[in-house]
Amino acid sequence: MRVYLVIIDESPEAKVAMTYASRLALQAGGQVHMLALVPPQQFSAFGGVQATMEEEARSRAEVMVTSAAGRYFSESGRMPVISVELGEPERVVREYLATHPEISALVLGASRDGADPLVSHFSTHSGTLPCPLYIVPGDWVPETVEDQF
């Protein structure tokens, strides 16, 4: 079974990447994994404050990925695998790929202005990934994605 990993955040590019990955999964009879990243919070001299900030960021990420999963389920009738991970985004994605050998492709959305740290990082290091990397133009709309299938 083909499994597509999508990084979920609040950007329009992530929504386009999710739409693209879901169409790939539906076409292949596969599955989607959604990974929401919670970057580490800047160090605070007060550990309790930092822990609270990280917990709030994690809660926002959980709501976001659960909402995306609900949209995917309502469109496809399939429940995706969802994960929320705390840490440096590049490291977290690499670790996720290493611990999930079933992943067939990493699907990322690129913004028009090119300010995508994950796209920049993984396109530069794509030769070391355990799976193909799909970069979807972030200014596509769902109709553009649908035209590809």
UniProtKB/TrEMBL annotation:
Record-linked CDD domains: USP-like
Signal peptide limits: none
Domain UspA: 5-136
Protein name: UspA domain-containing protein
